[in-house]
Specification:
Largest sheet: 7 strands, parallel
Helix content: 25-40%
Strand content: 5-15%
CATH architecture of the largest domain: 3-Layer(aba) Sandwich
CATH superfamily of the largest domain: Peptidase S8/S53 domain
Oligomer: single chain
Number of helices: 13
Radius of gyration: 23 Å
């Protein structure tokens, strides 16, 4: 199979076996391939050089203490080049969806390192091999070619991630990860002028997006529980809950309460920028990478636009306070982990209650682990993404003491692009997600558009769901009451109890019984609120974040 496992793959990853002293320059081989990789060792460390055209990019080496993932450094992802015709691309996706059938959800494909090149997610690849009993790489290549692939190739996983977080590949439709094989329509403009004050849960009118209903995280029923409860029905119950959102920063959108340069939902004054320099204003600078990601995920947590075109738009906890901490311009964050650690610690100092990290790194970082320990001890619930495309769970989601979210599509089918494994705690909606359209505008001019089709995907959205559900849970039991209840044995019991109850109340997913790849099930907001709290001293404290996988966490 020359185009997949043989010669072309070797062009992508050329191994230089000689040992060189540290600091000596790279011996660069001559290749006609525009993308290739080589590695070297100084006897103590390994490093890699990725060549993209005329650009050289140093790729961070994966480090892990997890024996189960000792081969993570050798992973690769399969890419396919398709016809430029959109109809042919959609036909390929439909055939792939048909092959996955009821076993997985896959609403779109992520673009890869080249024009009309797309990535076959690792989880989807493994499912195809198992379900269709493909004996080898040749059989997989033949299958993908029969679906319409012009070429089938393999790219080192670290090379793909390096391209993404360095912004080295920008396709006509946007940066890597933004172009989807879907029928794109122009965003519809809302007739709403300015932001609407968030109403009470009893006034949240449908129709509701699937991810909020019984086919998803069962959030609507939770809202109805608040509306029916005398203690919670008179005001927005979660209005004082603060979600630290560590991401690309904020842009102004009416769904997040922005009107006339001020927001009822986004607490800019409490937030800050940690990258590329320290600054008081965490506004998204709209740099190459994933501009607007922070706004899209914030809206999935806290959005409220009842007059959105088609149907109302809601986040999981409409109007909950979002505290933005800008740490990156990309969702791949190996290069900014110190900024993430600083932001987590600042969220603790700012008395936030929840931390949302819809970001991922290939390697663990000691400072981030220590920040997670600090947040845990102070009682913050930290929600992290499991990741996608690459089949292994990413950091900080691989650490203990956080909620690591995998992905499902409608009706609890596992999302075929999501990372899986024992580090996943729960799953949440991650495919076919309706989302706001973030735009680069001048301050004071808030965007109002909602994408007309539910084409968003990613465990970023599952993580946002978890953060929103955590806000509902904290509001249901009241933050001050929880802190008092668990004062004697320590506030760490708040995130520990939340995780234990969320897992115990989850909805079974449509995956094989006994599988440990998707966590305990799909997060269920209403079922979670129905469970009684354990007494102080009952919860079991998780091992330190970087102590190695803790099965009891």
């Amino acid at each position: 199979m020359r185009g997949f496992a043989g010669a072309t793959f070797k062009q992508h990853r050329c191994v230089l076996r000689q040992v060189e002293p540290e600091g000596v320059g790279w011996v660069v081989p001559q290749h006609s391939s525009p993308i290739w990789m080589m590695q070297r060792s100084d006897g103590r460390h390994r490093s890699k050089l990725l060549r993209v055209g005329s650009r050289n990019i140093i790729v961070p080496t994966v480090t892990t203490n997890d024996a189960q993932d000792s081969d993570a450094d050798d992973d690769r992802v399969v890419t396919v080049q398709l016809s430029q015709a959109k109809g042919a691309q959609q036909a390929f996706l439909r055939k792939l969806q048909d092959a996955l059938g009821e076993d997985a959800s896959l609403g779109s494909l992520t673009s890869g390192p080249g024009e009309d090149v797309f990535v076959i997610p690792g989880t989807a690849e493994a499912l195809l091999r198992r379900k269709l009993q493909l004996p080898d790489d040749d059989a997989l290549e033949a299958l993908l070619r029969s679906y319409g692939a012009l070429t089938v190739n393999a790219l080192h996983a670290q090379a793909l991630f390096a391209l993404m977080y360095r912004g080295a590949v920008v396709l006509p439709g946007g940066p890597v990860g933004a172009t989807k094989i879907t029928k794109i329509q122009a965003p519809a403009k809302s007739a709403l002028q300015g932001a609407a004050a968030v109403s009470l849960p009893k006034d949240f009118r449908g129709p509701y997006d699937w991810n909020l209903g019984p086919r998803g995280a069962n959030v609507v029923e939770a809202w109805q529980m608040f509306a029916a409860h005398p203690s919670h029905s008179a005001q927005l119950p979660w209005k004082d809950v603060r979600v630290a959102h560590i991401d690309t920063g904020y842009t102004e959108h009416a769904a997040l309460g922005w009107d006339g340069g001020a927001s009822m939902t986004v607490d800019v004054g409490r937030g800050s920028e940690h990258w590329p320099q320290k600054d008081e204003d965490p506004r998204d600078e709209w740099l190459p990478g994933f501009p607007g990601h922070g706004t899209r995920i914030s809206a999935a947590i806290a959005g409220f636009l009842p007059q959105a075109p088609g149907s109302p738009f809601y986040g999981v906890a409409p109007g909950v306070q979002i505290v933005p901490y800008r740490v990156t311009d990309s969702v791949i964050v190996d290069h900014v982990q110190s900024a993430i650690a600083d932001a987590i610690l600042e969220a603790v100092a700012d008395d936030c209650h929840i931390v949302n990290v819809s970001l991922g790194a290939l390697r663990g970082d000691r400072r981030v682990a220590e920040a997670l320990d600090t947040a845990y001890e102070h009682g913050l619930i930290v929600c992290c993404a499991a990741g996608q495309v690459w089949p292994r769970v990413i950091y900080p989601g691989r650490f203990n003491r956080c909620m690591t979210m995998g992905g499902v599509g409608p009706d609890f089918k596992p999302w075929a692009s999501g990372a899986t494994g024992r580090h996943v705690d729960l799953c949440g909606p991650a495919d076919a997600i309706r989302r706001v359209k973030a735009e680069k505008r001048t301050p004071g001019d808030a965007a109002q558009a909602i994408y007309p089709k539910p084409e968003g995907d990613g465990t970023s959205y599952a993580t946002a769901t978890c953060s929103g559900v955590a806000a509902l849970w904290l509001a249901w039991h009241q933050v001050d009451a929880l802190r008092e209840r668990y004062a004697n044995s320590g506030r760490w019991q708040i995130p520990a109890v939340f995780k234990a109850l969320a897992r115990a109340s989850s909805t079974p997913g449509k995956w094989p019984a006994g599988s440990n790849s998707y966590g305990s099930g799909v997060i269920n907001a209403a079922a979670l609120l129905m469970l009684e709290l354990p007494d102080d001293g009952v919860a079991v404290k998780a091992a330190a974040a970087d102590a190695g996988f803790d099965p009891n966490d």
